[in-house]
């Protein structure tokens, strides 16, 4: 499985995980300019913007560690645009789903409130 295939597979696993936990998927691969958020979900009137990171190993660090401050700012920018354009005043949060998937195991870690926008 190449990197792109692994990423798509990870997003599929993340979506299934969220649905199993009672979330509703609102958007997939939401784009604004050249920026993207992997999944937008809802639960209890709360919009959740989800970044999915998938790796075959955690040898160099857990996948969630790749969600840098720069990436967080990009996700926040996409979320802000989405909420404004759709005239949504609901609360929002930012989650990361970190997946290690290989022939030996699949580990899914859902980090709620993984980061916050600066006020």
Strand order of the largest sheet: 1-2-3-4-5
Tell me the series of helices and strands, N- to C-terminal.
HEEEHEE
Give the mean pLDDT.
Answer: 90
The number of helical elements comes to: 2
Summarize the structure.
It is built from 2 helices and 5 strands, in the order αβββαββ. It is of the alpha+beta class and 119 residues long.
Topology, please?
Elements: H1 3-20, E1 24-32, E2 35-43, E3 46-55, H2 69-85, E4 92-101, E5 106-115
Parallel strand pairs: 3-4
Antiparallel strand pairs: 1-2, 2-3, 4-5
Structure description:
With 119 residues, the protein is of the alpha+beta class. Helices cover 29% and strands 40% of the residues. A five-stranded mixed beta sheet has the order 1-2-3-4-5, with helices on both faces. The model has no long low-confidence stretch (mean pLDDT 90).
Task: Offer a few descriptive terms.
globular, 119 residues, 29% helix, 2 helices, 40% strand, alpha+beta, 5-stranded mixed beta sheet
